[in-house]
Amino acid sequence: MKPDPERADELEREFRKGFIGIFKRVWPQLAHIVCLTSSTFAVHVDKLLENYARGCQFYSVVYGATEALIALNQNPYQRPELYTLVPNWAFIEFIPIENSEEDQPATFFADQVEIGKEYELAVTTINGLYRFRFGDVVKVVTFMNQAPVMELRYRIGQLLNVRGEKTSEISILTVISKAAKEWTDVKLKDYCCAESVLKSERDGSDLSAPYYILFVELEDDSPNPKLSEKQKELIDVYLRDESYPYESFRRKDAIGPIEVHTVAQNTFAEFRHYILNNSGASGNQLKIPRALRRHDYLEFMLGKIL
Predict the structure, then answer these.
(1) CA–CA separation, 4 vs 10, rounded Å?
(2) Nearest-CA neighbor of 263 among 211, 298, 212?
(3) What are the phi and psi torsion angles at 73 (to 5°)?
(4) Integer Cα distance of 287 and 206 in angstroms
(5) Cα–Cα distance between 159 and 303 in angstroms, integer?
(6) H/E element holding 277?
(7) DSSP bridge pairs for 120
(8) Is 245 helix (H, G, I), strand (E, B) or coil?
(9) Are strands 259-263 and 212-218 parallel, antiparallel or unpaired?
(10) How far apart (Å, rounded) are the C-alpha atoms in residues 45 and 38?
């Protein structure tokens, strides 16, 4: 590449104006941004739209996994994103979600699934991967001819479940996003959760009423460094509205109120490095877990509480 002083001056002028909407200002012909936008990635898309990517369109082209590409998004700007199964990319079997805890559950083919129901997916690929359950759960919304059109819901390992209530990561995201809209003096940056069972295994504490633990990182420019007690209570209120099983157990005091902690700035950036250094994950495949399952991950977060 050769130096371009004229372009450098142009960029410097735009940077001096601030970085809200910077993408469209430095690339005025930018049509859309291709990236993952569904499920819990939505929180990051919303942040980009508020700041650097204001005025841009985001497009999640395909639904895929490390193992195979699975489905195509035919409507770029629809929310939530819907993906149409492409049968010749991989062979997909559908496990009814109520049977997902079985070791050898019955499966359905693409033309046998029902609209409105949720299924865990199993994939078989041309390269020899056979009936692999990679943990994704989808909801069948409609059909295009005989191909199911699906909404990505959550991952099996990311459910919060202390009394059989099975609260999905989508429900948690919905609740946090709703509560964050009422936080006038703070802005949400990132979050993750854990079950109190993991904490009790660490310190031997009593769990007569297990509960969820939520770790929240706020934006650098938030006027207040921590959430207030009222802001924390709002999360539990909305979670009770979102999930009937959770509300039922809360009403009977079988589940305690969610415990909310604000963590220090850059906690999640440091957490990403920690996972890379202490697991077999690769940088381009790593997804920050929304539900913590490892004791060392919980220890990391507890050490970052303000």
Answers:
(1) 10
(2) 298
(3) -90, 110
(4) 32
(5) 23
(6) helix 267-277
(7) 95, 137
(8) helix
(9) parallel
(10) 9
Residue whose tokens read 């990679």: 134
| Chain position carrying tokens 């948690």 | 172
Contact criterion met (CB below 8 Å) for 156 and 137: yes
pTM attached to this predicted model: 0.78
128: three-class secondary structure by DSSP? coil
CA torsion 50-56-62-64 (nearest 10°) is -30
The string over 168-197, giving b where at least 16 C-beta atoms fall within 10 Å of a residue's C-beta and e elsewhere, is bbbbbbbbbebbbeebeebebbbbbbbbbe
Are 110 and 147 in contact, with CB atoms under 8 Å apart?
yes
Q: How far is CA 255 from CA 58, 198, 218, in A?
A: 39, 15, 27
Q: Which residue has the tokens 């999930």?
A: 243
Euclidean distance between CA atoms 51 and 63, whole angstroms:
26
CB 61 within 8 A of CB 46: no
Classify the phi-psi angles of 166: left when phi > 0, otherwise alpha if psi is within -120 to 50, otherwise beta: left
**At a CB cut-off of 8 Å and minimum separation 6, what does 91 contact?**
123, 124, 125
Is residue 74 a contact partner of residue 109, using CB atoms and an 8 Å limit? no
CB 67 within 8 A of CB 91: no
> Which residue in 114, 75, 113 sits closest to 92, CA to CA?
113
pLDDT tens-place values along the chain, 306 residues long: 889 999 999 999 999 999 999 999 999 999 889 887 876 677 778 888 888 999 898 888 899 887 889 999 988 778 888 999 999 999 999 999 999 889 999 999 999 999 999 999 999 998 889 999 988 999 999 999 999 999 988 888 788 999 989 898 889 988 998 999 898 888 889 999 999 998 887 776 666 789 999 999 998 776 678 899 999 999 999 999 999 999 999 999 999 999 999 999 999 999 999 999 887 766 666 778 889 999 999 999 999 999
87 phi and psi angles, rounded to 5 deg: -65, -30
